[in-house]
Write a structure and sequence with these properties.
By secondary structure, the protein is an alpha/beta fold. About 55% of the residues lie in helices and about 10% in strands. Strands 1-4-3-2-5-6-11-10-7-8-9 form an eleven-stranded mixed β-sheet, with helices on both faces.
């Protein structure tokens, strides 16, 4: 079965992921530590750290075009070097680096809460935040990607406001001396500030859900780094210009940037900056916990960590053990309480991993020069070598300036090496809580010019078989038609790496049943099953619709009332927006036909034959939509060798003979035998009344019957719920009449005429 990931993230979302992660830690958490290390030169340090990040950012930008898989740096290094000690150390470093950075965010969050509510201790808030984030990640609460975009946009706006207003409050005397500890202090600050730029790498972990990742991600990386360099450098420079740098260091204040904001905007400015800090640190810690836990999950999937790290909660679909272990590491980092030590350790891990990413680029260039690269690093191999050199220089600088942090980092890396060689070979990597399914991909026949496709979204195992049988029967009667069953695995927004979700999604019995059903048709001629992992079911289905030619979309009926409103949003949107014929099928499994129906041309009884649609009742109005629907009816009739009955219900006073003559002229559009029935009364009531004598009722959802745009409204609900045979509601696609405004105009005109 063809599997794919739905691409829903555009340029703006990609930028918000990168900027939102990068912008929080330096400004809101590490500003005081930076001033203590470099004085006013902290602005130069964070500028140089950003420039250093560009070298590795360029390597990321090319690698995402070579290895467009979710997972980021860990995946790139593993693919380049093989699943060996180098790939393991890279994943080990990224896992622990992300986790340690969470300690910074938690402590910063505690500081901001303590500023707003002085009676709440900082450490208590930090620990509670870790517990809360762990709990929400385990629960798998669906968050809104739009909300994340809004938060980041608000943060950027507030910081730009700070820069614009703060320029007028700078005292350049506070900038002297600019580097009180010399360039060694600048390089020291540059080392631990480098980790504040690691956010650009997070967008590569979601590369498989980015629209045109080979174009979007390189641009997003470079634009986000440039934007963040400007914002951070400006904020740091203005901060040390508003107040003397020695008033902004730890021991003097825990909230240096809030102090400068108060200098600009008084108490209100302080609270506004504190609120921004709360949003930034909360967003950053949530993202970092997800990134860290998903890295350990991915390593366990690659048999680099014990199988228990792959344990997934069957209800919430989240890697519980990975989240818990990551949270324990965060608690340890918070308990250290020293921002400089934590940031230094995190930077050493990040610099090590990013150095290996540059190595991975060089290996890929040498091993696979033939691969298409839509983005190429300029001045290769100078640029990645500069990235390696700068990263190693910063590691040495950090090691010399902070022996405690170096000892911690080396101890952790040494523990990883010992684990790799001594412990890992003895472990049994049993999958727990996950049932993985290996579904091979069907290769498309590029030389076939298919004229028709029947797309069948399937999710309910109860209705899936009937829909597939119906579609296959139609396709079998048409030599150039392909059936495309589409199964969408819904991915909660709280999952950062979408590819990791493949292993999580097979544990629901319903999903397993549907996937097993689709696997049955794998390799069958005329069948092209597709499995999509997506955060947006409608977008995923539409991505298939837009790629096919002349499609017919068949969907199951979910029912009326509350059931309709729970499921009907996607159904309604498909009916309104899909550039395709859309059919809603309710399969009837009742008893034989109803006795005693009387109307010209309709036999008294006809047994219901289930999926053998030998007699089709088609309420026919003769208008544009009826003519379009007739094409679908004709396809069904050919497939089942069925007889078609055209039913037209007239009002009192309408000439019956004239109507019958008009309808007879319409029978030429059908390939199968057609009978005509003209009755007086109400359309829906007559359709329900005669339904028991037919196998299938096909109704056009159109202006012809006054159904308007509420295609799943009361009229069709009644037919679907009460008809004593199977019912197919068809929305026929017409490019001209599909325009919403035009449909509205036509409906209002029709209503005015009839009034």
């Amino acid at each position: 079965m063809k599997q794919k990931l739905d691409r829903t993230l555009g340029m703006y979302s990609a930028l918000m992921i990168s900027i939102g992660t990068m912008i929080g830690s330096a400004i809101f958490v590490l500003a005081g530590t930076s001033y203590a290390a470099a004085g006013p030169g902290a602005s130069l340090a964070i500028f140089l750290a950003g420039i250093a990040a560009v070298f590795t950012g360029l390597s990321f930008a090319e690698l995402v075009t070579v290895v467009p898989k979710a997972g980021g740096g860990y995946v790139y290094v593993k693919e380049a070097t093989g699943n060996n000690i180098i790939g393991f150390i890279c994943g080990w470093g990224f896992w622990l680096g992300y986790a340690m950075s969470c300690g910074l965010f938690a402590l910063g969050f505690g500081n901001f809460v303590h500023y707003i509510f002085p009676f709440i201790p900082q450490m208590a808030t930090a620990y509670l935040l870790v517990v809360y984030v762990a709990f929400t990640n385990i629960r798998g609460t669906k968050s809104s990607g739009n909300l994340q975009n809004i938060i980041t946009t608000v943060l950027v706006a507030l910081l730009l406001l700070y820069v614009v207003v703060g320029v007028f409050h700078i005292d350049m005397g506070n900038q002297k001396p600019f580097t009180p500890f010399g360039m060694s202090g600048v390089f020291n600050a540059m080392g631990f500030l480098y980790m504040t730029y690691i956010g650009y790498g997070l967008i590569t972990t979601a590369s498989e859900e980015v629209i045109e990742p080979e174009k979007t991600i390189p641009k997003a990386i470079l634009i986000s780094i440039a934007a963040v360099i400007f914002i951070k450098t400006s904020v740091f420079f203005i901060g040390s210009g508003i107040l003397p740098w020695n008033e902004l260091v730890p021991g003097v204040t825990d909230t240096p940037m809030i102090d400068t904001a108060m200098k600009i905007g008084g108490r209100f400015g302080g609270y506004l900056f504190a609120f921004a800090g709360l949003l930034a640190t909360l967003s950053s810690i949530n993202t970092a916990v997800m990134a860290s836990s998903r890295t350990s999950f991915a390593m366990a999937r690659d048999n680099r960590l014990p199988g228990i790290f792959k344990t997934v909660n069957r209800r919430t679909k989240t890697p519980v053990v990975s989240i818990i272990v990551t949270s324990v590491i965060v608690v340890v980092a918070v308990s250290i309480r020293d921002l400089e030590h934590i940031s230094t350790v995190t930077s050493i891990f990040s610099l090590t991993g990013y150095s290996l990413v540059n190595v991975a680029l060089i290996i890929f260039r040498k091993k696979k020069p033939e691969l298409e690269r839509k983005f190429r690093v300029p001045l290769f191999p100078v640029t990645p070598l500069l990235g390696i050199g700068v990263n190693l220089f910063l590691i040495v600088q950090l090691a010399v300036s902070d022996f405690i942090a170096l000892a911690i980092a080396l101890g952790v890396i040494a523990a990883g090496v010992l684990y790799y060689y001594l412990v890992m070979p003895r472990l049994k990597y049993a999958t727990k809580g996950i049932a993985t399914v290996d579904i091979p991909e069907i290769r498309e026949d590029k030389g076939t010019d298919r004229k028709n496709e029947i797309i069948i979204p399937v999710s309910n195992p109860v209705t899936a078989q009937g829909l597939l049988d119906f579609g296959r029967r139609i396709a079998a009667a048409e030599s150039s038609t392909t059936v495309v069953p589409v199964k969408v695995n819904m991915i909660p927004d709280n999952l950062l790496t979408i590819s990791d979700y493949e292993a999580m999604q097979r544990n629901r019995s319903g999903d397993e049943a549907v996937i097993a059903l689709l696997k049955k048709y794998e390799g069958e001629p005329g069948m092209k099953p597709v499995l999509i992992h997506s955060r947006d079911v409608f977008h995923a289905i539409m991505s298939v619709v837009h790629k096919e030619k002349n499609p017919l979309v068949l969907m199951g009926w979910h029912g009326a009332g509350l059931v309709k409103y729970m499921h009907g949003n996607i159904t309604y949107r498909m009916l309104q927006e899909a550039p395709a014929d859309v059919g809603l099928l309710r399969i009837y499994h009742g008893n034989a036909g109803v006795q005693g129906k009387e109307c010209a041309g309709i036999p008294a009884e006809y047994p219901d034959s289930g999926m053998e649609f030998k007699r089709i009742l088609f309420p026919y109005g003769g208008g544009k939509y009826s003519q379009l629907t007739a094409k679908v009816v004709n396809r069904i009739a050919r497939a089942y060798d069925a007889k078609i009955t055209l039913l037209h219900v007239i009002d009192h006073g309408e000439d019956k003979a004239e109507t019958e003559y008009y309808l007879k002229s319409s029978t030429e559009r059908f390939d199968q035998p057609v009978e005509i029935v003209v009755c007086e009364g109400a359309l829906v009531e007559k359709v329900v009344e005669f339904s028991g004598q037919y196998d299938l009722v096909v109704m056009g959802a159109s202006l012809d019957w006054g159904i308007q745009e509420m295609v799943t409204g009361l009229r069709t609900d009644r037919v679907m719920d009460t008809a004593e045979c199977s019912v197919l509601i068809v929305k026929s696609y017409d490019l001209f009449l599909q325009k919403k405004k035009l449909r509205g105009l036509l409906h209002r005109t029709r209503r005015a005429i009839h009034q």
